[in-house]
Records
---
Amino acid sequence: MHIVDGVLSNPVLVSSAGLTLLGVAVGLRKIEGDDIPKVGVFSATFFIASLVHIPVGPSSVHLILNGLIGITLGWAAFPALLIALLLQAIFFGFGGLVVLGANTLNIALPAVLVYYLYAPLLRRSTTKLAAIWGFAAGSSAIALTTVFVGFSLALSGEEFLIAAKLAFVTHIPVMLVEGFFTAAAVFLLCKVKPEILMGEPHLSAPPSAPKTHP
Amino acid sequence: MKSTVMGIFLAMSLLVTTHAVAHSVIGFVYAEGWEIEGEIGFSDGQLAPPGTLVEIFGPDSTKLGETRTKTNGAFHYTATSAITHHVKANLGSGHAIELILEAEALPNVSSSPNGSALNATSITSLHTDSVGNLNEDQLKQLISEAVSRQVTPLRRDLINYQNQAKWHDVLGGIGYILGIFGLAAWLTARKQKEKP
């Protein structure tokens, strides 16, 4: 998922950096004072997730978690992911500094799209249904990211269908793993701290239930 | 239901072989006389697929030639002049690498590759001859080959070691993130305090 320096053409780099800047600006405006710790925690989660390798067949995949970040943060995914990706580039050499804009766009824009697709559904679901939407959100965020990565590569000269297909097919295990992980996370959040997920009190939980306000 | 889903999941994970999911490309390049050798792979230990195109550029970005990787991710190219070589490979899906071989790693400009004293067959024949007949050039080449044989695995280990994520990097990164968001929280809190 992390495109490295020297692969994308300059127009792609510049335009995606511009769009990322726009996304970050929108994200920063949307963050309320009380949300800041939440954004920070999910930024840190993303930073770590790339180090968690899950063996799949002969290779291994690592988590990306942009679906979970999308449904919990919405537009704030842009600043959260930008910071995490910057630190990943500096500390681990994932991606690079020149392609930071493109990588942020490819990972954060699906997160925002997933937010608009699934957050309304999640808000009026029961806990079990919410977990299923969580699965859908987690896996579709990855699917969208692979399409975006394919698109960036295509605009830089690689053939779109080949690039996108390769990215998509190789990420099917990641989609499944992310789906399960996001479903589990959503399930847990619904049980213990629904307000993180919903941005507002969880409608399916009884409003005065004591366990939703630990 | 659950077991069926898990079954499908496992079956798919086994079916899909993947190289694009590993995230960083690593590799190294070195010279053995005029022969440029190198290895390309992913940070999780996978090697570049056989037949991956490796392009070689000069210091002024002119293309000098190209070669392809063999089964073990290794490639090899014969240099024609003692200049800095930039070795580039694109492994698809946004994975690319550029390796640089400095001009100093190649033999002196005075000796051209064609005039190079030895080739592989003469080395083997030399082993059966008496060693005393070696001239200085031949001896130099034998020594450099022996040294590079010893050093190559070390080089590989060193690169792998450098590419491992270290605990202090992980903790440092988390610290930075918490610091940045802590600062943001503090600034907004201060702003809100000033308002009323």
---
Amino acid sequence: MTVFLSGGAKNGKSTLAQQLAVKLSGEGKRYYVATMIPTDEEDYDRIRRHVADRAGLGFETVECEKNMLSCLDRADKNGTFLVDSATALLQNALFPREKNYELDLEGAKRCADELIAFLGAVKHAVVVSDYIYADAQRYDEITELYRKSLAGIDRCLAAACDTVIEVTAGNPIVYKGVLPL
Amino acid sequence: MVLIIGGAYQGKLDFAKSTFDLKPADIFTCTGGEIDFSRRCIDHIEEFTYACARSGVDAVAYFQSHREQWRDSILICRDISAGVVPMGADMRSWRQMNGLTCRYLSGEAARVSRIFCGLEERLK
């Protein structure tokens, strides 16, 4: 089963995603796919917070900053994968580290295709994204491209996943499928 | 009238096209302070409210005065209400005017749909 989950910042997306992954995995393997490339102390703090949140839940961490299918070299596809987040994967694809973080216009489509292929290859997956589309700003071209690209990935994931959920103030709103809790 | 709202790039127009069988000629895309109500579907109403906010025009009053012309239309507006209070007065005024316009149109609508990642949530 595949679940796509989005919502605003600090609304409880990661917490719910962990609960769903634990529930879906049953007695099987559960993997946390770490997607963020930390670049400063704030990033390391966030990683420490997320690691502490997951402590005791039995997740094995698989680092995968791009090409989602490559993490299956190090994990059993019959397990349950928590991917947090599509937002970080897009950032890594759109501004690749190996190209000195310069914009790669092909990155967004590649990221979407790899995620969809990954969802088709694994038994269970929960993918988290960020809802960054409802503020009163007029952004620069690059930021707007990032928002548009993430929305494109979100829509692909929402179309492909069995269940689609928006999390608001810790509460799930189910747009598609059923909440497997 | 049908009101379709949602964040940027969520698939509001795609939803309108497939649900109401719209052709390109049926759609008016707002870019300023005038709306061609002869088209069945009015898209990007947030650009209309943006122009109104910048020129001091009351967007709700504009819709009220053209009420007969959009009673059977499909109106699409981006939700811009959920960020930090903008620093610029123009942006604050835009956000306020867009919110008031959505509330007014929502009250008048026979159906209100919010689009999230291409999926509909029926609010009314």
